[in-house]
Amino acid sequence: DAMVIQNPRYQVTQFGKPVTLSCSQTLNHNVMYWYQQKSSQAPKLLFHYYDKDFNNEADTPDNFQSRRPNTSFCFLDIRSPGLGDAAMYLCATSRLNAGLADTQYFGPGTRLTVL
Amino acid sequence: AQTVTQSQPEMSVQEAETVTLSCTYDTSESDYYLFWYKQPPSRQMILVIRQEAYKQQNATENRFSVNFQKAAKSFSLKISDSQLGDAAMYFCAYRSASRDDKIIFGKGTRLHILP
């Protein structure tokens, strides 16, 4: 089945130790998103890609970076995780249709713990 | 700027009963999309139902239906014959049809199903 896959599902890192979360998709969607979701809150968009064009949200901290080496994969790098970065990180994809992206499909998320 | 408001942080419904989750939004645009997403505890966020603003007919997906009132900017979700598996956080979301494809989420409503 076509899907959005996130690895790992659970990640533990130490304060200040860089961590990378990965997302892959078999939907062949050209738009990919990274969200941060804290407990009982709505997802907060960090950035997204139209193909290789990177779009950063104005309030996304510089501590968060992203890479998209190809259509299928997208990575979230947290350069120096702080305690406040502990959250669920969601990857989503959508298909560009007539210049407008369609419904977003979400992966299962990676729960990040910062010790 | 567009906003999405879910005024019910939590709701409970008896199994097999019907429940309605409310959502209002604010926009100056005439063309847009509205969504309800479901996020079960520790599980993946999935699309429940989608509505195009230009369509007057309310969207329906099996036991899930919406009451879309464009003039009132209201988009409620009705769940009929509630099942234990319906217990989840439900997010109402908005996306412009004329700008970029970022989704604006409401804060969510946590739905409990009482056996």
Brief write-up:
Chain A is mostly beta strands and 115 residues long. Helix content of chain A is 0%, strand content 54%.
Tag the structure with descriptive keywords.
heterodimer, A: 115 residues, mainly beta, seven-stranded mixed β-sheet, four-stranded antiparallel β-sheet, 54% strand, B: 115 residues, six-stranded mixed β-sheet, globular
Radius of gyration of chain A, rounded?
14 Å
Per DSSP E runs of 2 or more residues, the count of β-strands of chain A stands at 13
Structural class, from secondary structure content of chain B? Answer: mainly beta
Low-confidence stretches of chain B: none
Largest sheet of chain A: 7 strands, mixed
Distance between the termini of chain A: 36 Å
Number of separate helices of chain A: 0
Tell me the Rg of chain B in angstroms.
14 Å
The multimeric state of the shown protein is heterodimer
Count the E strands of chain B: 12
Task: Please bin the fraction of helical residues of chain A.
Answer: under 10%
Q: Please, how many helices of chain B?
A: 0
Run of helices and strands of chain B? EEEEEEEEEEEE
The secondary-structure class of chain A comes to: mainly beta
Straight-line N-to-C gap of chain B? 41 Å
Uncertain segments of chain A are: none
Helix percentage of chain B? under 10%
What is the strand content of chain B?
A: over 45%
Largest interface: A-B, 20 and 21 residues
